[in-house]
Amino acid sequence: MRASEPGYARSVTPEHTFPEPTNTEAIRVIGRFEAGRGIPDAMRNDVRMLGVLLGQVLREAGGDDLFEDVERLRLATIQAYDEETPDAFDRAAAIAESFTVARADQVARAFTCYFHLVNLAEEHQRVRVLRERAGQPGREDAADTVATAYARLKSEVGEDEALRRLEGLRFHPVFTAHPTEARRRAVSSSIRRLSDLLTQHDAASAGGAEAHRAQRRMLEEIDTLWRTAPLRSQKPSPTDEVRTVMGVFDETLFTTVPHVYRRIDDALRGEDSGSSAPIVPAFVRVGSWVGGDRDGNPFVTASVTREASDIAADHVLRGLERAHERIGRTLTLDAEGTPPSTEVIALWERFAAAEPGIAGELATRSPDEPHRRALLVLARRIAATRIGEGELRYSGPEELLADLRSVQSSLVAAGAKRHAFGGVQHLIWQVETYGFHLTELEVRQHSQVHAKALAELEAGAAISAQTEEVLEVFRVIADIQRDRGLRAAGRYVVSFTQAASDLANVHRLAKHALGDDAPVLDVVPLFETFADLQAAPAILAEAVTFPEFRARMAETGNKLEVMLGYSDSSKDVGPVAANLALYEAQEKIAQWAQESDIELTLFHGRGGALGRGGGPANSAILAQPPHSVDGRFKLTEQGEVIFARYGEPAIAMRHIDQVAAATLLASSPTVEARTSGAAARYAEVAATMDAASRERFFSLVKAEGFAPWFATVTPLEEIGLLALGSRPARRGLSVESLEDLRAIPWVFAWTQARINLAGWFGLGTALQAVGDEALLVEAYREWPLLRTMIDNVAMSLAKTDERIARQYLALGDRDDLAALVLDELALTREWVIRLTGGDGLLVNKPVLQRAVQLRSPYVDALSLLQLRALRALRSAGDTEATGSGADAEQQRLLLLSVSGVAAGLQNTG
User: Fold this and answer.
1) Over the stretch 206-256, which tens digit does the pLDDT of each residue have?
2) What is the DSSP letter of 565?
3) How many alpha carbons lie under 13 Å from residue 705 in its C-beta half-sphere?
4) How far is CA 73 from CA 327, 681, 858, 861, in A?
5) For the purposes of burial, counting CB atoms within 10 Å of the CB of 595, is it exposed (0-12), middle (13-18) or buried (19 or more)?
6) Residue 633 predicted with pLDDT over 70
7) Are 288 and 441 within 8 A, CB to CB?
């Protein structure tokens, strides 16, 4: 039966995405594999429908032969998980090898499209569940929402103290442009359009004209997805990366964040919400390194930083202008029933005197509606600010906030409280959150670059182009602060801070650039390596004695920000020792800050992958040491994580609420007592795990020839050819040691090889060194740090595949290193299962387990295609120039498979 024939959809079993083959044995095998996965009916229907449409596209675009080839490989990889067919894995590998390169290319694209559609269906189901839960507080636990966390905090510390802590709440995600989003923007846009069509299909009557129309348009969009080249032809520029991130603000964050505040206020205050001043502050601040992070990226220049700020300002001012116009048009309250205050009358008169023509037009459109006119005046002034137009422009967001509060007070005095604390409050929240800058742009540079620039400047000789560029950055920061305020730019992060002088150097360079007109700077140390984390408290204690630090801290109420790097510390000593070292560093820094009466904000440089501090943020927050959070949580959000957490409004609202709740709850007496008590109780366990894991990790990464072996058994070199981001993948020209390699490709490469080593290696040995299973089970239950570590490792291990991993490891001709990896994998899996209970990984997290298990056979198909390409490239050696002939075809196939595996595993670096 053809995909286009009537009744085709009825032949598809619910769990499939590709249409069901007619072979009876295939139906039986696939049905047995997919049975009992617990897929909700609504999601099952979505997956079925999207799969039917994909199958139709494959047949129409490539003919029956393409569809059958995809089906053969799909069936074999599924059978490989069936004990009744032990030879299926070898058969699947043989099928992958049998394709021509052109056919393998098409099959890889088909499986990649499959993953995009399944990911979409899962996201759509999450949104459904969130909407169903709305207004049902009994369905979520105390750590999940700000409202319930606040109630718990109030019961522990009293209402006044709980309210004080709520007022000081701060959640500060910082978006970065690290190359971890493997999808092209065109592919992401197509998926977003499909999401909208899926929503329309949900709202339509089953079988009706609107449902049919939505399906027809989905078929068209899936065809677009299939025909869109999945790989970028060239790397994006830093400015391209800025514009990509701006899409998240335009489509989601700008409007969503005020709704988060409102939902929390509704939950806390019930009927009083919206009719009196809210108690929920604008607690979100959004930062960005996109266009500001120049550490190792020569393409981020001072002019790029200036352009990034300009682009963000243009986006937020356009957004504010539209929001003021939209809400202004609704304020059709006549002057007789809602008389304006003298401040609002004065606001109008000043504008009318300056712009009589526009004022006359507004008066005609808003007869006797003073509050409407006032907000439309504000919109006009925002537009003037955006285009830099004369006297109408605002000097800064504070001036706009003053006007908004005048309108709000006028409405309150006139009895229109619901308008004052409804739409107008929404505008106030937006301005408080985003100002005129949208993102708080941060600059990051390596400490050695600063040292080299200073040496040149103080030698008195001609300075290099790099040093001139370093100085120009400070001039740009000063310009941005003058135009948009201190929040627009001012944090300066120093990578690889190893001494207090590394921080003082920033101020010295600023003076070289501008003398006494140097910009206001909050210099943020970034401690990344194991040694630097241990040295951090002493470095900070010296830094705060510097005059520039003392003066700035006096201006800010003794505030200090410190950044901790998860990526390089994990690559430095392994994931177990790095996690323990990060906890210890936070504990010591927080204790020092408490003793010094410093308001500390720890900035967590976390990535999306588990080897880079990834995993659920809320559980990680609740595992932090006492006073290391204190109502403030700041972290980097990278690559695919940005779109996964903030790309869809309902999911963004849920994520922000969850993280804010954990941030508020982390400083409760019970949570702090539990965390500190467990850390003390299991200190010996931690010490044993630390020593054993580091020794095991070093036995691998310090082995002779490890770095080139790693580059051979993973697609590391080829990943560097992907046009993912503007930043180079490594610091040098080749990989001779781990120091040459950035943390992101270190994680990405192990992920692609289905080994995920960066997320777990050394944990099995660490737990074996402790040895006492009863003690470790108790520690897993009582010690938040260990529980978070074990749960994250379980997730990482669930995405490994030993059969696939063995084939990658075999590429390296080092049986000793391969055995070391496989032995540690088996040991770690054994211990994780023993501690979490059950007979397999993620038994205690069934939804996640189902998602991983359903994807695994299909990821295997792409991995087998990647392996055949990798073998061909490795065997070619130096006989062909890279990028020529068959080598170029294999390289393209490999890069296509990299993109598909990233989509299937839902994380890269």
Assistant:
1) 788 898 999 999 999 999 999 988 776 677 788 888 888 888 888 899 999
2) E
3) 10
4) 55, 52, 9, 7
5) exposed
6) yes
7) yes
Q: Exactly one of 172, 178, 437, 446 is catalytic; which is it?
A: 178
Q: Which tokens go with 186?
A: 């065109």
Q: Which H or E element spans position 87?
A: none
Which residue among 571, 604, 627, 799 is the active-site one?
Answer: 571
Gap between the Cα atoms of 191 and 524, Å rounded: 38
The three-point CA angle 160-162-168 to 5° equals 105
Closest listed residue to residue 241, CA positions, set 171, 284, 297, 322: 297
What pLDDT sits at residue 610? 45
Residue 759, CA distances (Å) to 586, 615, 799, 909 in order: 21, 10, 11, 11
Residues ≥6 apart with Cβ < 8 Å to 136: none
CB 812 within 8 A of CB 818: yes
The answer to whether 571 is a known catalytic residue is yes
* Residue 702: active-site member: no
Q: List alpha helices for 544-682, DSSP H.
A: 547-555, 567-573, 575-595, 617-621, 640-646, 649-665, 669-681
What is the spatial distance between Cα 313 and Cα 244, in angstroms, rounded to a whole number? 15
150: Cβ contacts below 8 Å, ≥ 6 apart: 162, 166, 268, 664
pLDDT, tens only, 387-413:
987 889 999 999 999 999 999 999 999
Task: Judge whether 78 and 199 are in contact, CB under 8 Å.
Answer: no
What is the mean predicted confidence (pLDDT) over 502-507? 97
443 forms bridges with which residues in the sheet? 492
Cα gap 424→408, rounded to integer Å: 6
